[in-house]
Amino acid sequence: MVTQTREGQLVETFVTLADTLVVGYDIVDLLQTLVEKCVPLFEASAAGIILSAGEGELEVVASTNERGRLVEILQLRSGSGPCVECLTTGRAVAVGDIDAVGPKWPRFRAGALEQGFASMIAVPLRLRTTTIGSLNIFWDRLGALGEADIVTVQALADVATIGILQERAIRESDDARQQLQHALNSRVLIEQAKGVLAFTHSANMDEAFALLRDYARRNGIPLVDVAERVVTRTLSL
C-alpha cells in the first residue's frame, strides 16, 4: 500500500476544491469539503468555519464534528475566544496551549478543555480589507503550527473566500452579504434536517449529517435541497 505524502495530500486538497468551484456549485458543500480536508492534512481533531452575514451576525456554517462546533458556538455566544479575536482583528490567532490562556478567555478555555482540545488556530477569511469569517482548526494535543503550515492554512481559507464570492465575481458588499446570508440560511436547514434524521434513525448528529450528505452526493442534489425535503417530510432517508 502506497502512503500518500503530505505534499500529495495538499495537492489533492486544492484539486478537489478547484473541481468544486464550477457553475452551480453548492457553497455549503464546498466549505464542508474544505474543513474535512483540513483534518487529515494537518493531523487535526476538528475543523470548522464561521461566517459573518453583516451587522454583527456570526454563525458556524461548516464543521467536521460536534465537538468543534460546540466550541465555536460557545465563543460566538460569549463574544470572546481565538475565533472571535481572529474575526475582529483580521489576523490569524494561534493557541499552542489552551489550558494556559488563563483569564483572557475563561469560557473558551473551560469549554475547549471539556471537549478534549489542547490547541487550535483560527485564520481569517478576508474580502480585501474586510474579514468575512474564520477557518478554525483544533487539536487534542499541545503545540503550534509552523510558519509554513500557517501560510498553507491561510491559502485554504482564501479558497473558501473565493468560493463564497463565486470565483471573485461578486465585487460589491451588498452582493457579498447576500451570498453569506444564503450560506447561513442553508446551514439552518441542514441543522434542522440533522435533528430530524438523528431522531428517526436514533443516530448522533455526525452520523445524521453523513447520511444527509451521502444522499445528496449520490443523487447529485444540492445539500440544502435535500435538507429542506427532509425537514418538510417530503423525503425519507
From TrEMBL:
One Pfam family, short name: ANTAR
NADP as UniProt keyword: no
GO terms, molecular function: kinase activity; RNA binding
PROSITE patterns membership: ANTAR (PS50921)
SUPFAM superfamilies, alphabetized: CheY-like, GAF domain-like
Domain ANTAR: 170-231
Keyword 4Fe-4S attached: no
Domain of life: Bacteria
Keywords: Kinase, Transcription, Transcription regulation, Transferase
Name of the protein: GAF domain-containing protein
